[in-house]
Structures are given as C-alpha cells and as structure tokens.
Amino acid sequence: MEGLAAIESSAQSHPAEWRAFFHRIYPGLLVAGTIALAATWLSQQYHSPVMLFALLFGMTFHFLYEEGRCVAGIEFSSKAVLRVGVALLGARITAHQILQLGAMPIATVVVAIISTIALGAFAARMLGLSRSFGVLSGGAVGICGASAALAIASVLPRTSESERDTILTVVTVTLLSTIAMIIYPLFVTVLGFDHIHAGIFLGGTIHDVAQVVGAGYSISPETGDVATYVKLLRVSMLLPVVFSIAFFVSRRAKGGQSHAKVNLPLFLVGFAVLVALNSAGLLSKMTTDVANDASRWSLVTAIAALGMKTSFKDLAAVGWKPIALMVLETVWIAAITAIAVIFV
Fold first, then answer.
1. DSSP label at residue 320
2. Are 52 and 174 in contact (CB under 8 A)?
3. CA nearest to 142, candidates 226, 216, 207
4. What is the pLDDT of residue 100?
5. What burial class does residue 319 get, using C-beta atoms within 10 Å of its C-beta: 0-12 exposed, 13-18 middle, 19+ buried?
6. What are phi and psi for residue 145, nearest 5 degrees?
7. Rounded distance, CA 21 to CA 76, Å?
C-alpha cells in the first residue's frame, strides 16, 4: 500500500505527473464523495447528523481500503481533504462576533475547554487509556465535536490505533451531541434561564455546530443567535488549541528541548488567515457561504474516507472505557457552563 506522503511528494517533485496523480486518487475520492452525497441526502430527509451517516456508510465499504485502486484516494480524502475542510471553518468566524459576547461567555468557554481537555488527559490514564485519546476526546467535546476531533488527530503522534480512536471519538461525540440537542433545551427551560443565558449554555456545551443551531432556535430566535455566536467562539479556539498540541508533541518528540522547532500545519495558517480576512470585512457573504459549503462537504467526505479505513470489529474491541470517558467530559463541560451561567 502506498501512502499519501509518497503520492504527494511524487506529484510535487514532477509537475508533469499531476495527471497521473489525479488518476491514482480519483477512484477513492469519488467513492468518498459519493458516500458524502448519500449521507447528506439522508441527513436532510431524516434530520439526523450527517457525520454519523457518513461514518457508518464509510465503514460498510471498508473492503475498498484493503486493496485495489481506491486506497490512494481514500488516504488523500482522509488527510488532504480533511485539512482543507478544517481550514475553511475560519470563514465562519469574525472577531466582532466574539467580542460582542462580553467577558463572561468568553472566560467560561476558555476555562471549560482547557479544563475539559485536562480532565480527558488525566481521566484517560486513570482508565488505562492513552493520554493522546484523552486529549483527542477532550478537545472534541470541548471545542466543536467531529471537526475538532479531525483537526486534533492530524497533529497527534501517529500510532496503529490513531484512526480507530478518531473514528470512535467522532461516533461517540456525534451521538452525545444529538442527545444533548434533545435534552438540553428541556434542561434550560426547567431551570428558568432567559433567552440569553439559555443561548450561552447551549452554545457552550453542545458539541457540534448543527446541533447547537437546532437546539437554540427550537427555543427562540434570540436564543439561537446567542447559542450560535458562543459556539463560534468555541470553534475559534480550535487554532490555539491545535497549535498548542502540535507544540507539545514537537517538544516531546525532540526530548523536551526548548528550542525544538514546531512545524505549524498549513491548514491552521489557512484557518487564521480566513478569520482575519472575515474580521476585516474582506470576504463577501457569497464567499463565506461558498467557503462554509466547501468546508462542510470536505469534512463529510473526509469522515466517509475515515469510515472506509475502519472496521466494525476494530471499534467493537475498544470496550466501554472510551465511551465512559467522553460521557464524563460531556457532563463536566455542562456543569462548568451551568455554574458560570447561574452564579457569574
């Protein structure tokens, strides 16, 4: 099996081979894109998480990754297409959206994300899981669900279990986010939160953007707007969190040397540039809409490819501990946010 790195290196070294490069990746890329299209249609028909459909459909086509012409395209989709999707997330965010929330939501989000990732790393070791899985799951719960899981996984050290852990994280965080979308609006109603505080809680706790929007606007337009802005604040934390993880991974790989060079992933640079351009008002609404659609399609395609790289048997072998860890992280971030909303 030839890896993506070798394919990309060959294409970059010999521009005349670009046609051969695309000829090699298009079968797998086409399959991943077709699965993404089917998952999107079903998601719209049944109002269910598109990421979950893409994952499950992808896993049913695992045999395509074992050998054959699709392998190179599946590798390309799960890595290069993924990075494009994460980078384009930056077009959703502006500095004005973040600053207009005020100090309390910003401080709450920062504390909740950092503490959730720290809890994940600590509790993972207590449960006999790897610290990398704790960071991966904590980041997914704390920031933006499946998108954060994919971004964080791309900078964590690669092991034989990396892709299985990523798939498990995406599946679990998507399910937990769907449950939260149903339960949390009832929770904030029982507690008597006003529209603003309800929006802060929903945006600060539900994992995926789509579920935040669904939960927020099910209460009121004002709650939906506040929840969306708070969620975008969490998404904006993707850049510093992923960069920090890449920094620590780089230092650890080089024996903790203070002068260890950090290889900043290009997709993070793209993310930051798009945030800056959008904040400066240099991106038109049509441009941001196109970028958002392209990001969504890229991420769903990448999820489909990751699904094709994972078997049901591999997931079944992990046991209950990873799921218990992510439930704990979900309860933790909900508790931190609720305390801040009620008492601050």
1. S
2. yes
3. 207
4. 80
5. exposed
6. 65, -130
7. 11
